[in-house]
Amino acid sequence: MANARALLVHPEEGSDRIETALGAAGFDVTRTDTAASAVAKATTGEYDCVVSEYALRGDDGVALATAIEESDAGVPIVMFTETDEEGVPEAAFENGVDRFLQKNGSASIDKLVSDVTTVCSGVPTSEPRQDVSEHEPSAAEVTRAVEDAPIGISISDPDLPDYPLVYVNDAWKDHTGYPIEEALGRNPRFLQGPGTDPETVEKIAEALGNEEEVTVEIRNYRRDGTPFWNELTVAPIYDEDGDLAHYVGFQNDVSERKEAERLAQERAEKLATERRSLDRVLGRVNGLLSDISRILVENRDPSVIPARVCETIAGEPGYAGGWIGEVSSATGELEIRAASGLSVEAGATFDLDETPEEVREALESQELSTGSIEHASDGPLEPESAGGRRLLVVPLTYGERQYGLLGIYGSGADVLDRRERKVCDSVGKMIANGLHSLETTKILTTDRVVEIVVGVRDPTASLAQIADAVGREVTHLGTTRLDDDACELYFRVDGEGVSLDELESLPLVESMRTVSETNDGASFAVTVTESPPLTQLADHGVVVSEATATADGATLTIEAPPEHDVRSILDVFRGEYEGVELRSRVERESRDRTVAEFAAAVDERLTERQRAALKTAELNGYFEWPRPVDGSEIAERMGITRQTFHQHLRAAERKLVEAYVNPRSN
């Protein structure tokens, strides 16, 4: 701003950039570094603006602002500071600071210049007023300006009956669509129509009767009958004797603004309705999620959970009842395991053709399916059977493992909408996750187990390809799952002269690293782009206790609960490979807990990095004494720092000890 003077109150360090920026913007800058000096200068009236840092020698910027304000100097203050102390901005504004800016590089300097320019814009200019006495517009020029004005202008004569129009300009004609000859001589009320507000008309009439100016927004109609919103101002015009001569009207078409306001109002009402609906949903599902979480934590018997879940659903406001069922692999019928709020009891079975359509759709798609009472037919599981209006069927799925279906009946028209359905989907996954956890725990703790040996005679199997690349039999030691379906597989190969060079040339291998090497063999890890089928078995609630492979195929030993369907395990491999066969199935009455089972229990507690640190350390002999390797060497093999390796290892060791001391702890 040309000729404007700015007082910069700032320590010498860091002031150059500010002075340069303000000077480039046309300010005459004077700098001082103490509050006392700044007050003395600011109160002289010579400065148009004060720019101050908060931290000053012997004082602070808030005290400076207070002193300037108390002096009534009337100079605006901009605080430009590095401080981030809590409460400083509030204190600054309370004590007379007009703008408060945090220093943040060149962008904040630009903002400072802009703000200083803005607060100084009220400084009176020294430009002289010009003599315009010889440039008054003529009567013809004024008339032309009125006729060509962009807003409608009309004049009525109060001396004539009914205050008729005696003049309208071109804009008035364009707004209304009426030719001038049709408008003159008529009262402007002919623009009114069925949508015109009578109270607004009365307000205009009252102002005219009192010879007062009035501004209203009135619904008027064009000559072709289309409505428009007219922002109308009517004002009395007096003659030289002070008598009422005319009424002048100024008309502005504000239809677009009114439409925007209407849409904004509708949107606000819609958002308010959505918010109320969302609040109802959250109130309902928060209680549901909390109660079901507690059921899954407190109950270790999977046969009890379905009944408790159904009772909770039936007791939740907005829901009429619920059931959990599973399709029998033997009969193909839907068997109800638990129900509450409807006449159907646990143990009832139904042919799928007599169940609601939503049940069949959910089974086929393994996704949510819903329907309302308006589209329901007669049947024991239809919404009407529970006194509800809508049925939502939720698949209970964990990975590839299916634990049945959850049916929820909504009792209100606004229940189970799209938002609530998403939450119910999460409830279904939570229930399936809980059942899977109990199933896995049962495998690891039961005294009865089925040991299944599966053979895969297919050289394209991932384990077989790895064995072929190594040139000898490999033993699978464990798996760490990664993101995007990838995983890291750990192997051991026995014998001298092991070569791992061919591994990285395999299409399925993304990377390979050697974990340990001895005279007796080697351990290595490969990252594969897609998880092999054996990693899917955990989703089916079973444990792989041993796996070996040669170039011709693989052999896996799998342990499962006695009641587990062996066919589903075989189907996991048959979906990928040829030559899959069940070599043996042995049920044991009692057994000792295997290392593989304990490892599986610990594995659920470890993060990806913790697993990798623990396995790499063990395979390299880190836990032997004397240690053949130190932490730095292992960290280098893992591609991480020594400190990070020890952090992950300590966390893994702590979880390992916890699992040993208290195997049932979370």
Radius of gyration: 42 Å
Number of strands: 26
**Strand order, largest beta sheet:** 22-23-21-20-24-25-19-26
What's the end-to-end separation, in Å? 68 Å
Q: Tell me roughly what share of residues is in helical segments.
A: 25-40%
- Whole-number average pLDDT? 83
* Helix segment tally: 19
Q: The biggest beta sheet, please?
A: 8 strands, antiparallel
Structural class: alpha+beta
Strand content: 25-35%
Protein name: Bacterio-opsin activator domain-containing protein
Keywords: Chromophore, Flavoprotein, FMN, Kinase, Transcription, Transcription regulation, Transferase
Domain PAC: 214-266
Region (Disordered): 362-384
Could you walk me through the main structural features you see in this protein, from its secondary elements to its overall organization?
- The structure is a single chain.
- The chain has 666 residues and is α+β, with helices and mostly antiparallel strands.
- The strands form 5 sheets. The protein has an 8-stranded antiparallel β-sheet, sandwiched between helices. Strands 15-14-13-18-17-16 form a 6-stranded antiparallel β-sheet, sandwiched between helices. It has a 5-stranded parallel β-sheet with strand order 2-1-3-6-7, with helices on both faces.
- Strand 22 (509-518) and strand 23 form a beta hairpin.
- Helix 2 packs parallel to helix 3 (61-70).
- The model is unreliable at 123-127 (pLDDT under 50).
